[in-house]
Specification:
Elements: H1 3-49, H2 52-107, H3 113-152, H4 159-166
Helix pairs in contact: 2-3, 3-4
Amino acid sequence: MTRKRIFKLIHFASTVWFVVCALLIAAGLFLVNFAIWIILNPLLAVAEMLLPSSRQHRAIRLAHVKEMRRKESLAKKHALAEVEASEVKKLKIWDNVLEPNAKELAALSITSRAALEQSRGRIVDIGIAAWQLGGLGCMRHLHSMAVQTSRQDSRDTRSMDFVSACWDGIGNW
């Protein structure tokens, strides 16, 4: 054998040896990792849970978590009650303020284009006032109040469709 060929064989053998060692190291790391995280760690956790001090700490921690959840639940219920109360208060204010406007809208009997043109300015003014008072929600509330008043007075509720058309463009209507 020539010297060049011997060096090639040695180089090949060392390369193969390096690859085999790298694979063995990788497989060993994988197995060690598996053994630690899948087998040893759960066993240590179980052993730690069996200690009396760990059980006491866990009980204290769980009681603390339960108390925190109870406080959060009470805070959410309190916030919801405040929001509901403010909404009811707002609706009562709207009812008092908008009642004359709802009656006025309900009293309009728009049956022709001429009647619509004659009432358009007042309808728009009422819509703008409702928008300024409470936005789109207030306008919807006023419209529903006017429809309800029309029904109570046995009037034709189709006029309310003209009111909606006149309010088109006010705020988000």
